[in-house]
Write a structure and sequence with these properties.
The structure is a homohexamer. The longest helix of chain A is centred in the first third of the chain and has 16 residues. By secondary structure, the first copy, chain A, is α/β, with parallel strands linked by helices. Chain A has eight helices and eight strands. In chain A, helix 3 links the parallel strand 3 and strand 4. Chain A has a seven-stranded mixed beta sheet with strand order 4-3-2-5-6-8-7, sandwiched between helices. In chain A, helix 3 runs antiparallel to helix 6. The first copy, chain A, is about 40% helix and about 20% strand. Chains A and D meet through strand 1, strand 7, helix 8 and strand 8 of A and strand 1, strand 7, helix 8 and strand 8 of D. Strand 1 of chain A pairs antiparallel with strand 1 of chain D.
């Protein structure tokens, strides 16, 4: 059984610079190889996650890292530009994301699970849910015209697989290398590996794709769940 | 088995002009016939849902449509006056809705399900939950005096029945005509039937009341769930 | 808001002699007062629950106690006659219960929750679910003719309210006296109050109807959930 | 987004002669068109569902009807031969089904949801779950050799969509005709349409595929959920 | 089986002056006796809950009552200072609570359940979840330095045990006296006992600790659930 | 925070010879070190899991392996003696397990989760649930006298962590060596590592204890959930 991503336009909406790598980069890489167009929207700048040896212009450094990672994937990169730890489901944030949806024109959006561990992730989840509807509503005016239809919406796995019941698994066995290479672009984040609030990220990422893989009979997988809501659930 | 609505004062709190029609108008009509008093509070103006051929003063047009629908039912109409797509669970919105509760004095409030498809629906759900408590708290000052007790609170079905586990079903077999007539009042909304983000509304409504009816052994039904919370759950 | 039980025929299907008292006797008493006909089907004999000072013919003693309790309520009593602790969801048990359904002809059946604490309760739950369908199926031959339609089915609360999410609450404030008097009939069971595997039953029962009452704004209540299944869910 | 069924061997395991039509025939037809091999295993004979005007050799009649329906689909038909209303999750039933799995060698099995409305459906669900594991275990001896690996397993929707949270939807818009033609083969069952325990089946089927379709943006769909268990969940 | 709280630093984060008494004071008292350090953070002033005979400087009165209750327990008291009924999950509130976490340096935080009955409780829950992460993130600048690691986080029971599935129970049989004495400090709140929106608090509290105790085999208990999220779930 | 197991008598009830190793051996080892007495009851003989190169008297070989593993732990071993793949929740199996409970006299029982992957696991779960109640009921006669009270009951994690929401985590960081040594005793099972229906067991076990450890902030953990039922839930 295979899910075919060709002809799709897949937009991953994440809170922080390395979240796409951790939760959906394998799926994005596979969709790209299938012929899909890929976008990654990172809503926060990554400006609060300083390593022990502080990086001077952290937001700029992280932006360059994100660009490198997106380039590896062949993805278009969209930056929300919001501050870490302060993301809210407010009107300006919604309009910003609606405009990004209208620029990329996704047929499928991937978003953080509503109950994920970080308030930025939960705000990003609510923003993506809201934008996935409003992007196609002409009453919400932004620079670009409204889309013809809302994209499908999938919730992504949570960090550490906590409290996430997978609806289905995407086989990323052949896309582990690019997923790891993308993560390696985030040097300023990886430098935090030994510090107080992060496990070494590569270990965390490997444990998760292996565990999801073992659960679904392949060497590596990513887990998702269909958002069951008007126009965002789509038959395959 | 019958639920008796007589002596109740039922207030439906919805986000948009036609939501009451879609989700609870049959129940309201039945309660009215039983002898209950009915109120409908529509929080948003319906100002963003333009049909292909734009209506000039859309909010005014939709207000007139709502009044016509409420009149058919014999319901008191309350308008929140907020803009479509921008409804928030904030202090001004809460005070506005608390005052509406205090004017109508409901013994039962019907509200959108917390996980419904649209951010306005989710905000309306949170506002109704909050107002259903605070309307009876004298610390919250509004023009009208606080109520003697919070009303009971029920969550309404979601649009398309997505991810809603019914707690119980209300038989509306004899009230389908008024439900359909009320919907027919919303001409400016129905005119959007063929456009990008709406299925023909009458089809959607019929499919839902027939499906809920078939699930519960009648020709038409509406589904609800008791909000399990202090003072809002009430024994029958 | 009131649920009207008049014209109903309510059959409570329980595992042991005092389960109806603990979980639904208030509702049965109220339904009876409303004009409903009441049946109680006790599947097990109560033959294994000896008090410290053993009762000689325990099953006979408990049968007399059940008859006294049913008489208080004005209920018809049906005895499954199975042994305590050995109830199974097997063919003979199903046929026995189908025949009881056909004799009483319920329009509403009350059954133990599928995850209740005792294997007899779980078997009784499965048997009631199965009989509530098969009683109306002419392919299952028993002495009495098949019913015209399956009854509605509600799950009852669990002992101690463990892991039971109420769908709704029935106000039994005016029926506490009869519920307590019915329990008092079960002297051989109450004699076990201090022994190894039972808390004093009256305390347990009071705590539960008070807690369910407090949750739903009355002095005493019983909690139920609609069984969401073909023909057993019914609109009110 | 499309699920590709080519190279699969799909086995639907159902309780009664017309269950595959109601719950998964569109998916089977689509998989067949994709290049998959299809099997249908009906565990019960359909011997208890007499129409008002009794059919003489009902089991034989229904067998012929099943064969006609399977032929329309190009599916291999397997008959469990058990009696209606008596299906149990016992040793002989398990061995029978293990042998059927070994004859058909599925890579994907479809089974009733564990909480469906009928005890035969629930037993069929448990049997399919068990056989989906044991078919690949050489310790369970049957006539045919064990499979190299367990098939994936999906739960099917329930009758009337009661209490079933879809994990995903399969678009069957192009396969509605064959689904309806297959149902039309079951004349002895359709003859029960007006009798006591069945709604007209075609109406029921249409309402369900339309409701699932509307929920997922197509004209007709069937809903499924991945069984999350060792070796039966498979990444796509 | 015993949970050992020694060497812990336990911070209860609640919305209103008497919430800690109702939901976790027994656990705090036991932890204190075990050798833990205890903090109570009350986010709202209790300024809106006037008894029938209004208290002049209500916020000051309630502050004195909180101090008396905290003193009984030997707990450090932190006051958020926000207005009743207006608590929001906003930036200033988060920074205030992050600073409180950094002052107390908890190893375990107790917070309201996300679905509790009052919007202040739900906001307090979101704030505690957010602060439990951000307190250890150096990007969030407050007066005190960031913590070395986030504390564990437990959700507390809800008022009236509505819709709360306990993950585990803490035996507070020996700490009922201090729990009741602490509640008795809140005279201005207890004076509301007969008024419109509160049941007598002592009755409510007793019913709840007895019901949770009976569910878990002791005379009194409090129920909690581990927050399943990155860094906040901790093995024991 | 620590759970103290001293003075407990912990009985793990599992289906197959190596299940205790996979799911709870670390916890058992820790409890033993704490001063608890440990029992392991293996209900099936392990007689159907032949490696590629068949072992002659497989049941005897596996019995010896189990004895070696139990000896490493210092646990008492109880053998149900039932055949693999045929375990049922029947009367003889229940009486056998009740007698084992009465011989070991547990204060805490660990059992498979009700929805685990294998029908033997699900039957073992139901048997343990039933025996955990009936062991203290004098109406169920077996050779040994009834216990004074039912033990507490915890559900164990599932194989591969599928569909199991942990209630809490037990830190087994210091007990990984004995867990791995115990697994190494099962040579006839490990010999199946490359065959059709098993992943290499050591890899599976390591992935699971590492994933559960990472989720709960330690290097290795096992996950459990309290069975929420009368007398089996116990406050700590």
């Amino acid at each position: 059984m295979k899910l075919q991503f060709d002809h799709e336009r897949v937009l991953a909406v994440v809170a922080h610079p390395d979240d796409a790598e951790l939760l959906c980069a394998g799926t994005l890489a596979r969709a790209k190889t299938n012929g899909a167009e890929i976008g990654i929207c990172v809503l926060c700048q990554g400006d609060k996650g300083q390593p022990d040896k502080p990086v001077k212009n952290l937001a700029a450094t992280r932006r360059a890292e994100m660009q490198a990672a997106a380039k590896l994937l062949g993805a278009e990169l969209f930056l929300g530009g919001f501050s870490d730890g302060e993301l809210a489901d407010g009107r300006p944030e919604r309009l910003r994301l609606i405009e990004i949806f209208r620029q990329f024109r996704p047929t499928l959006a991937l978003a953080h699970s509503p109950e994920d561990y970080h308030s930025d992730h939960r705000a990003a989840s609510a923003l993506a849910e809201s934008a996935s509807w409003s992007c196609a509503s002409r009453g919400h005016k932004t620079k670009s015209p409204p889309l013809a239809a809302p994209p499908a919406l999938w919730w992504m796995d949570t960090i550490h697989m906590h409290a996430f019941a997978p609806g289905f698994f995407v086989d990323i066995s052949e896309f582990v290398a690019v997923k790891e290479k993308m993560l390696a672009c985030h040097q300023s984040q990886l430098a935090r590996g030994q510090d107080r609030d992060f496990s070494p990220l590569l270990d965390l990422m490997r444990l998760q794709y292996q565990a999801r893989g073992t659960q679904s009979g392949v060497s590596a997988a990513e887990a998702f769940r269909v958002r069951l809501a008007f126009k965002r659930a789509r038959a395959w």
